[in-house]
Amino acid sequence: MNVLARVKSILNCGSVKSDIKFSTYHISTKVDMRRVVELLNGRIRLRLDSFMDSCKYLNIQFKQANYVIPRNSTYLSGLIDTRGSVVFNYRRNIIILALVLKLNSRSEKLNFDITIPGIHPKVYKLQKGTQGKDFYGIRFVFCPTIDSMIHVYNFIVNSRNYSDVKYYRLLQIKNFIEIRNFKDSIKGSEDNKTYCKWVLNFISYLNPDYRKVNYFKELTL
Amino acid sequence: MAESFFEKDQILEEDLEYVAAVFDGEGHFDIRTKKKRRTDFKVNLSQNEYTRYECSR
User: Is B50 at the interface with chain A, CB within 8 A?
Assistant: First the structure.
């Protein structure tokens, strides 16, 4: 996983292990843990309880982070890599970048209003699941409109993501803006084929299940 | 983008913000308690990003 390799490379400590399902980045020595807590102190915004316990355990004074995420901040890139989704909505003919976090007093405080220049993200509160297993989430949507996609593209080009799938998909935005109007062109025409090829390329990248999308039969080459 | 360095380790500020977000997203700061057997920090990520972040929703 490039994300964890990047984290290891930045911190210059710890190890990454992988099995079939998961990759895990691991720091286990007290020296490294102390260093990482010192480096991240004042930047952790969500995992506060356990981070504050760590500060206490290591006798380090906890520093509060700023919840207004600055312009072009790589904090958003890290959250996109771990909790974000980049999805193509065929019906609306739009690429949507969204972030879903557990709803709590910390995630509610996160403010991305100035993080991506030109975008004021839409924020939704979610409740999912059946009784007793409810999940309360908060969803930040960064491409609520067609016009906002180019701003997300510019942000990604400047800040870089390390999740292969998400970075690849976000880089397709610019090309998509040029061909998205071909969706309504005559079936079998060169324009329509170009559009269908783009969709297939987008959904099939590192995704063996891409044929399961409900609009797959509508894509004609 | 600002290129200020974290003085002690010469790590770029923007890189530290990235790491903080990865820990905020999927990290664990585990301190040994009666329930938890060991003290360690870790980040778990699924190998199949597509399954985790799209099909499951």
Answer: yes
3-state helix, strand, coil in chain B (%, to 5): 35, 25, 35
* Binding-face residues of B in 10-49 toward A, CB within 8 A: 11, 14-31, 38-49
Q: Structural domains in chain A? A: 2-57 (no CATH), 74-218 (3.10.28.10)
The pTM of this model reads 0.89
- A20 touches B51 (CB < 8 A): no
CB pair distance less than 8 Å for A82 and B19 = no
Whether residue A22 and residue B6 make contact (CB cut-off 8 A), yes or no, is: no
Q: pLDDT tens digit string along A60-70?
A: 999 999 999 99
Q: For chain A, what is the largest distance between any 2 Cα atoms, rounded to a whole number of angstroms?
A: 68
* Distance set, CA A208 to CA A105, A163, A213 (Å): 38, 17, 11
Q: What is the pLDDT of residues A22-57, one digit of tens each?
A: 899 999 888 999 999 999 999 999 999 999 999 999
